[in-house]
Design brief:
The chain is α+β, with helices and mostly antiparallel strands and about 400 residues long. It folds into three domains: about 5-95, Integrase, DNA-binding domain (Double Stranded RNA Binding Domain), CATH 3.30.160.390; about 105-210, Tyrosine recombinase, N-terminal domain (DNA polymerase, domain 1, Orthogonal Bundle), CATH 1.10.150.130; about 220-395, Orthogonal Bundle (hpI Integrase, Chain A). Helix content is about 50%, strand content about 10%. It is built from 18 helices and seven strands. It has helices at about 5-10, 60-75, 80-100, 105-115, 120-135, 135-140, 150-160, 165-185, 205-210, 225-235, 240-250, 255, 290-300, 320-330, 340-350, 355-360, 370-375, 380-395, and strands spanning about 15-20, 25-30, 35-40, 45-55, 265, 270-275, 285. A four-stranded antiparallel β-sheet has the order 1-2-3-4, with helices on one face. Strands 5-6-7 form a three-stranded antiparallel β-sheet.
């Protein structure tokens, strides 16, 4: 039986500590504030923990809480540690609950902010603009867990036939945002925007393939590329080094502009690009010929910048038109940066015996159908390396000065 009673506690005004028994005590402060304290011993150490303030916590409630803590002690549990764990779980549950109220539009903008650091300004604006045009009106005000297949189809079906490529890009963006939301604990279950094994059963596969038809860019004949490389090799300006890397790897311009030092393993001779840096949002490895490794090693590092080709603008990398301006100054006005990929592909098709899928994968084009892709998981790195080594030998076949 406790020593204190409710009436006595209500009338206590003198500062001090008033024992109820079994370690439970009421502390009255000079300010008049009253609070409950439980004193106990654990592993030979005297400990105290607060049980709340009076009258929010009544005498009855304080005794119940004290009894529960003593039960924990008898089970070998530290009541203070148990309380900390419980509070942390409550905070996490609250954060999750609050997070689940976040709308898709907010999640998309947060995703763009988190991943867009390596994107160009143009790509970042375009990424959000597509969602603004086609997705936000339908699912922008829904939370991640409220979005299911019918909502995704409502976004895609109106534009799947007329704007298939854009629709497929929007689908991929929705998939990325919802995957990120799942990683944050904001939704469960399968991603309703997933293509393989899901939306491919609901939307036309034939129409989706048209989304990946390549545009044709003005290209330099592959026979003329070695002469251009000779001129570029005589110039050690950053734009020239970037142009050489672009041509020798057959990479896209934005891949080269935003190339980071930590993406290169020069000992292994590979350039690893994360999914967010690739057009199709699939991670990709570029095998590097020895000549390319030598080129990369010759690029001077700029202290404080993670990029091979840093710049002064907001993006932190060289200007988008730096290579084009260089080529124009060399009287190659009719050639586009992207066209060098066509030069490479024409050479590979006309002059080598490498299989078509190897040549296409060297350009990060995986044209295997879904069944074939599911069983063939190889990235053909060794075969692509051999192809790129032959390309590098051709490019450097003209000695400098000739």
């Amino acid at each position: 039986m406790g020593k204190l009673n409710p009436k006595q506690i209500e009338n206590l005004t003198k500062p001090g500590t008033y024992e109820d028994g079994d370690g439970l005590r009421l502390v009255v402060k000079p300010t008049g504030r009253k609070s409950w304290i439980l004193r106990f011993q654990l592993a030979g150490r005297r400990r105290e923990m607060g049980l709340g303030s009076y009258p929010d916590v009544s005498l009855k409630k304080a005794r119940q809480d004290a009894s529960n803590k003593r039960t924990q002690l008898s089970d070998g549990v530290d009541p203070l540690a148990a309380r900390d764990i419980e509070r942390a779980a409550q905070r996490e549950a609250q954060r999750t609950s609050e997070g689940k109220q976040l709308k898709f539009e907010t999640l998309a903008k947060e995703y763009c902010e988190a991943h867009g650091g390596t994107w160009s300004d143009k790509w970042r604006k375009g990424w959000l603009r597509k969602l603004e045009l086609y997705a936000f009106d339908h699912i922008g005000k829904l939370s991640a867990e409220e979005i299911s297949t019918p909502q995704v189809l409502k976004v895609l079906q109106p534009i799947w036939i007329t704007k298939t490529r854009t629709a497929d890009e929007v689908r991929g963006q929705i998939e990325q945002v919802l995957d990120a939301a799942k990683a944050r604990g904001l939704r469960e279950g399968e991603n309703p925007a997933r293509w393989r094994g899901h939306l491919d059963n609901l939307l036309s596969r034939v129409e989706k393939k048209t989304a990946r038809k390549r545009n044709h860019f003005e290209a330099l004949r592959w026979q003329d590329v070695p002469a251009l490389m000779t001129k570029l090799r005589a110039n050690n300006e950053p734009a020239s080094l970037a142009a050489q890397l672009l041509i020798m790897t057959s990479a896209r311009a934005h891949m080269v502009r935003f190339a980071r030092w930590d993406e290169f393993d020069l000992d292994a001779g590979i350039w690893s690009l994360p999914a967010e840096r690739m057009k199709m949002r699939v991670a990709f490895i570029v095998p590097l010929a020895e000549e390319v490794v030598t080129l990369v090693k010759s690029i001077p590092r700029v202290e404080g910048s993670p990029f091979l080709f840093p710049g002064q603008g907001k993006s932190g990398v060289m200007h988008a038109n730096a290579i084009r301006t260089l080529l124009h100054g060399m009287e190659y006005r009719h050639v586009t940066r992207h066209g060098f990929r066509s030069s490479f592909r024409d050479w590979a098709g006309e002059c080598t015996h490498y299989p078509r899928e190897i040549c296409e994968m060297a350009l990060a084009h995986d044209e295997r159908d879904q069944t074939e892709g599911a069983y063939s998981r190889s990235n053909f790195l060794d075969k692509r390396r051999a192809l790129m080594m032959d390309w590098a030998k051709l490019l450097l076949s003209n000695p400098i000065g000739q």
